[in-house]
Design a protein that fits this description.
Layout: H1 4-17, E1 18-21, H2 33-43, H3 49-58, H4 74-87, E2 92-96, H5 104-121, E3 124-128, H6 132-136, E4 144-145, E5 148-149
Parallel strand pairs: 1-2, 2-3
Antiparallel strand pairs: 4-5
């Protein structure tokens, strides 16, 4: 059985060291882009506004800080999600089909952005994807078939 203290420790580790970029963005619909990105820091009791603003500017959304997710395109929402994932400077970031819901051109721009921020922040990024071209951009590839790691 899992003890509450074990789960609390795992939750603390995830909050401190892990970031996530979800395929369907998982943005808070009633919060602005700025507030969505600042949220991980604010949940830790740290001010998040300056770091969030800087990352949103870096991803090209400096003029969209106060927009709600429904006021943003899919590509803009994904850039907000990427900024949110990187704002707390995680050691490892998991990205689940980060371009799966985007058109090809927007997807390529999101890929470039993900790799650019990764290089600047020196984060370990784990990407789950069916996109062979995206997988080819990664330093290492592991392939699964029916839940089994292929040799």
């Amino acid at each position: 059985p899992i003890h509450a203290s074990d789960e609390d420790a795992r939750a603390a580790l995830r909050a401190e060291a892990v970031g996530f970029v979800f395929q369907n963005f998982q943005l808070m619909p009633a919060m602005s882009a700025l507030d969505n990105v600042a949220l991980p820091l604010e949940l830790r009791g740290k001010p998040g506004g300056d770091a969030a603003r800087a990352l949103l500017e870096r991803v090209g959304l400096g003029q969209r800080l106060r927009h709600l997710p429904r006021q943003l395109s899919g590509g803009e929402q994904q850039r907000v999600a990427i900024a949110r994932a990187f704002v707390a400077q995680p050691r490892i970031l998991f990205a689940d089909e980060p371009t799966g819901n985007l058109d090809r051109r927007t997807g390529l721009a999101i890929e470039d952005l993900l790799f650019e921020i990764d290089a600047a922040r020196r984060t370990t990024v784990v990407i789950v994807t069916h996109d062979e071209r995206l997988a080819a951009r990664c330093d290492r590839q592991l392939r699964l078939d029916a839940g089994r790691l292929l040799p």
